[in-house]
Amino acid sequence: MEINTKNHWDTIYNTKQSNEVSWTQDVPTVSLEFIRKFKIPKDASIIDIGGGDSKLVDFLLKEGYSNISVLDISDAAILRAKNRLGNDSHKVKWIVTDILDFAPTEKYDVWHDRAAFHFQTDADKIEKYLNIVKHAVNGLVIVGTFSVDGPKKCSGLEIKQYDENGMKEKFEKANFENIECKREDHITPAGAIQNFVFCSFMKERS
Q1: With contact defined as beta carbons under 8 Å apart, do 75 and 8 qualify?
Q2: Of 94, 150, 146, whose CA–CA distance to 120 is shortest?
Q3: Residue 36 has what DSSP assignment?
């Protein structure tokens, strides 16, 4: 039986605190490092895919970025992020949808995803995801996934692991040129080590 993905994530965010889920980061170090490297203009359009209650948006706001969107499938995750940001929450565009149902109404200069891509486990869903990125992004794509040395599941759901070449192959087919890939050992709140691979890509000019 296929899992109702939205219900699955809403239940998690309604029943677990940030220190009880494996993906929590106090500081999204690698994501910020990649964004800072490209000296992104402060008014650039940035979207965080599967942002949930990730603190990336907090750091981007503090650094003066003024055109930020956060997308997540879970209303509960978005609500948690809004509550954490308080008065600053109105500075963010909040989008509640499954990434595969996302129909962007604007072009993004930066697409960041540390949460959604590796949950696309079959070829059709991967292709659909990449097609959305191809049509939604004019600039930079930053994607972090579980590496081939990382977990095989997350929160009870199957994921697809990647190495650097696997990531390059997928995004280069979607007309993005690879800039850099690096590994990160993420330490979960429970103290476990999860290996991620992060890659950055730039939209190729036709």
Answers
A1: no
A2: 146
A3: H
Q: Look at the block and give the residue holding tokens 């809403």.
A: 10
Domain 97-203: CATH architecture, name and number where available = 3-Layer(aba) Sandwich (3.40)
Instruction: Compute the distance between CA of residue 116 and CA of residue 95 in angstroms, rounded to an integer.
Output: 14
Sorted by sequence, the CB contacts under 8 Å of residue 148 that are 6+ apart come out as 161, 162, 163
Tokens standing for residue 74: 């879970």
Domain ranges for the chain: 97-203
CA gap 22, 72 in Å, rounded: 17
CA proximity to 140, closest of 47, 60, 74, 51: 47
Residue in 113, 142, 7, 121 with CA at minimum distance from that of residue 54: 113
Q: Tokens for 27?
A: 């500081």
CA pair distance 9, 6, nearest whole angstrom: 5
CB atoms near residue 127 (< 10 Å): 14
* pTM assigned to the model: 0.86
Q: What is the pLDDT of residues 15-72, one digit of tens each?
A: 655 554 444 557 788 899 999 999 899 999 999 998 888 899 999 999 999 999 999 9
Q: How many residues appear in the chain?
A: 206
